[in-house]
Amino acid sequence: MTGTDRLLILAPHGRDGQVIASHIEGTQPVATLATAAVVVAAIRAGELGVAVITDEAMAGFDLVELAAALADQPPWSDIPVLILTRREFGGWTPARLAMLFGNITILERPLHPDVLISSVRSALRARARQRRAEAYLMAREAAERQVRELAASLESRVLERTEALSTALAERAEAQSRLHDSEALYRYTVQLTAQNPWTADAAGRMLDVGPGWVNPDDTLRDWQARIHPDDLGPMRLAWDIALVNITPFLCDFRVLGARGRYIWCRSRAAPRLADDGSVLRWYGTLEDIDDRHVAATKLRQTQAELIHVSRLSAMGAMASTLAHELNQPLTAITNYVRGSRMMLNGDPAHEMLREALDKVDDNALRAGEIVRRVRDLVTKGDVQRQPEDLSAMINEACSLAMIDATSSGIDLCIDLTVAPNSVMVDRIQIQQVLLNLLRNAAEAVSASAVRRVTVTASSRSDNAIQISVSDTGPGVAVAAEPRLFESFNSTKVDGMGIGLSISRTIIEAHGGTIWHSGNPDGGATFGFSLPRLMA
């Protein structure tokens, strides 16, 4: 019997418990008075050896908790319980007690102390046998575990030796196969990739060129002869600097291609170093970037074209504004002249003054007519509309406006998943609006912790297309919102205040509207609508 077993007595009256304890005094372990909660806790802890319980003490148990604790006993455990009952006591039958506790002994009171002592000692011996069975089971399990581990170890050693032999044979075959595959992979990669390899010695003398080069043998003998004369000097300088400083080489230059024309290429190289830091060999590649170079040139041309149109539009907006502003004082001049002429009322003494006033009136009318014609020319000019791919137009404008976005840490997000395919617009003018909004957004986020600009396009239920540009900048001041789209009104220190005014003129000329709204998380959104191109 282990030292954890306890003999607990549960009686509802302290004197009853003391009497029972005095009868079984001298047993080991020593009897201890307990409560129903202590009995349940001892069952769960595996510390209860024997419990002596009077029938009236059964009312103190939480029967659900007691049943759960007894059910959780390990397989070897069946705690002996002695129930002291009286013949006149009702409610707890032997069958019910046996169903709850399992291993019970029912003793009817009053009983002789020898009977109680004998029953307790018998129960303790039964518990001791359970403990020995526990120790035997644990020892048997440990022995079986050792046998299994030994068998597994022997089996593992046999398998290891067998596998080692098989692995050695397989590794030899695999090494031969990898060598063959590596040679084939290198050969096919060189043939398929746009990167044409080359190698040079430590002094920069060409040692080998890949099969992708034009006339590899001629190139190996005199590679400088294939470089455009205008690019040879800068390329040689960059190569010499890399050789002297032992730094990676990168240079763009034109190379004579297979069709007899020069194409733009990009060459990269890096040194392979010995343990002492000296160069063993240079390894490099030559990549055809002619398509990218042509695309970049076209992009710059488009950007210049849009900038030119933007300047013309700015001049038009200024002319329109000046015409509007001059028309009011000219009208006032005409009214004052006519009022002064009426005040003279045909007096012959003021004939010369009337003639002067007539000339002022005629010239004021002439000036007003000139102003109106200029204004009509600006505000009623023809818009060259034609079907355009909306997604391509937006992507091109984003490329122009956000060329330096990556280097500035700006994250550009374009969401055109639900955008219509085509619209009837003047491409240059709509791109001018997008450029203006995108550049404003880029400036707004330049000092923000989160630098993100989002462009979206979607259809609306009113047969219109909505395009919006959102940023994570500081947003627009409330005081500046009412005059955002007015001419010569700017929130920037060095702004002219005509960009948004021009944008509004262009969008309204296309039959759309332009607006601004603040973002819930900060920043601003500028958007505009365009009529949808109906099929």
Can you describe this structure?
- By secondary structure, the chain is α/β, with parallel strands linked by helices.
- It has four domains: 6-136, Response regulator (Rossmann fold, 3-Layer(aba) Sandwich); 195-288, Beta-Lactamase; 293-379, Signal transduction histidine kinase, dimerisation/phosphotransfer (DHp) domain (Helix Hairpins), CATH 1.10.287.130; 386-531, Heat Shock Protein 90 (2-Layer Sandwich), CATH 3.30.565.10.
- Helices cover 50% and strands 20% of the residues.
- A five-stranded parallel sheet has the order 2-1-3-4-5, sandwiched between helices.
- Helix 2 runs parallel beside helix 3 (63-71).
- The longest helix has 80 residues, at 113-192.
- The two termini are 95 Å apart.
Features:
5-stranded parallel beta sheet, Rossmann fold, single chain, flat, 535 residues, Helix Hairpins, 4 domains, 5-stranded antiparallel beta sheet, Beta-Lactamase, alpha/beta, 20% strand
